[in-house]
């Protein structure tokens, strides 16, 4: 699943930072989706755990 998501958004740190900034500063981008602030925080926390060294 992680690979599928990365294939869609890429893994360039600069691109990911821009996406994070856009979502943080423009909440309307998520309007009409199932992602609210709590879900976005959960997704970010989960992604960080998946990317952490084991």
What's the shape? Answer: globular
Uncertain ranges: none
| Intertermini distance | 18 Å
User: Strand content of the residues, in percent?
Assistant: under 5%
Helix content: 55-70%
Cα radius of gyration in angstroms: 12 Å
Write down how many β-strands occur, each being a DSSP E stretch of 2 or more residues: 0
Summarize the structure.
The chain has helices at residues 2-9, 13-25, 37-51. By secondary structure, the protein is mainly alpha-helical.
List the helices and strands and how they pair.
Elements lengths: L1 H8 L3 H13 L11 H15 L3
Provide structural commentary.
- It is a single chain.
- The protein is built from three helices and no strands.
- With 54 residues, the protein is mostly helical.
- The model has no long low-confidence stretch (mean pLDDT 82).
- The protein starts with a helix and ends with a helix.
């Amino acid at each position: 699943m992680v690979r599928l998501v990365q294939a869609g958004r890429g893994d360039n740190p600069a691109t990911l930072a821009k996406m994070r900034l856009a979502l943080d500063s423009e909440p309307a981008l998520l309007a009409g989706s199932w992602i609210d602030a709590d879900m976005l925080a959960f997704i970010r926390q989960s992604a960080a755990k998946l990317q952490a060294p084991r």
